[in-house]
Amino acid sequence: MCLSFSHQAFSAVSLDRTRAVFNGTEKNLIVNITNDSTKKPYLAQAWLEDAHGKKLTDYLMVTPPMQRLEPSQKSVIRITSLPAVKSLPQDRESLFYFSVREVPPKSDHPNVLQLALQTKIKLFYRPAAIVAERFSEHDDQLVLHKMSGGYKIVNPSPYYMTVLGITGKPGQAVAKDFKPVMIAPKSSETVRSAVFSEPHVITINDFGGKPVVPYSCHGDICQAKAKQA
């Protein structure tokens, strides 16, 4: 019997990142994987899905889709762009999900429940036309609109932006009931939060860093101080 869970903490097969960006200026993206078990071999099955959970084969190809990892072995998974990738929007990012499922060896003991753990991370396809622009400071593009009980966050950029928290000053702990939110390009989301006179917005960048961006407000509209300078 084999069950699947999306949880990386106890996985034998680990990835070298928690999110991935496929730049349209490149043909391939390499993801490194490791069998962290020192005793057992594992099979690693890899694939891509769209935001609705449908397996993706049109725009990007994953190779190998299945491989065997010996104990402590390191390997790579290659994600390659296909010609149809040009049919994706070229003025903004597209969101996909990259999954790796580990398949343990068959147990020698009867009536043993074996778990096939699965790791899923976000993969952003970033068109060539907007690759260079992302490496300028874009965490300051978000605009906050004060609302009763929180904020409406507007993302005018062509990139997916994730807000991990909003605080009133640097170093302040994020409220436990704040729910991180990912905002699609050129769209908006609302969040429940305390409303601050000078909010500080915590985001996440390409490398997993968590920059804190100070904002100032004029009336109910708040913009990054760096953007106002």
Automatic annotation (TrEMBL):
GO cellular component, one term: outer membrane-bounded periplasmic space
Record-linked Gene3D superfamilies: Immunoglobulins
Domain of life assignment: Bacteria
Protein name (database record): Molecular chaperone
Record localization: Periplasm
Pfam families: PapD_C (PF02753), PapD_N (PF00345)
Domain Pili assembly chaperone N-terminal: start-end pairs: 13-130
Entry coiled-coil feature ranges: none
Alphabetical list of InterPro entries matching this protein: Ig-like_fold (IPR013783), PapD-like_sf (IPR008962), Periplasmic_pilus_chap (IPR050643), Pili_assmbl_chap_C_dom_sf (IPR036316), Pili_assmbl_chaperone_bac (IPR001829), Pili_assmbl_chaperone_C (IPR016148), Pili_assmbl_chaperone_CS (IPR018046), Pili_assmbl_chaperone_N (IPR016147)
Species annotation: Pantoea stewartii
UniProt-listed GO biological process terms: cell wall organization
Domain Pili assembly chaperone C-terminal, residue spans: 153-209
Record keywords: Chaperone, Fimbrium biogenesis, Immunoglobulin domain, Periplasm, Signal
Record family assignment: Belongs to the periplasmic pilus chaperone family.
